TrEMBL record:
Signal peptide: none annotated. One of its GO terms (biological process) is phosphoenolpyruvate-dependent sugar phosphotransferase system. The modification Phosphohistidine is found at residue 79. Mg(2+) binds at residue 82. This is PTS system lactose-specific EIIA component. The active site is at 79 (tele-phosphohistidine intermediate). Binds 1 Mg(2+) ion per trimer.
Amino acid sequence: MATKEEISMTGFAIVAYAGDAKTDLIEALNEARKGNFKHARSLVEEARQSINEAHNEQTKLLSKEAGGDNMDVTFIMVHGQDTLMTTMMLLDTISFTIDEYERLAAIEKQLGIALPTNDIH
């Protein structure tokens, strides 16, 4: 049986990995706005790796539960799940947005214009 402490520690790990991913994703978006698409995509890849680590932590508990262990839901674990899922949605959204920024940059280049690029905080 997974202890309440083990479940909470897993929740903390998920929050930490997902938080690292979110930080990388926001930085990636800012880099894309500046036209640094290669760097933006490398940051997205780092975020994917952090999300995979969070998912691996989650899978450990899922496997125990599937094996018949009882699980006490903790608020930390719920927060971890929420953070992971919203970060996964952010990954999809920012990946799409980077593609659009790159498309816009190509159009602006053809037209000989450039739009302002303020950082997002």
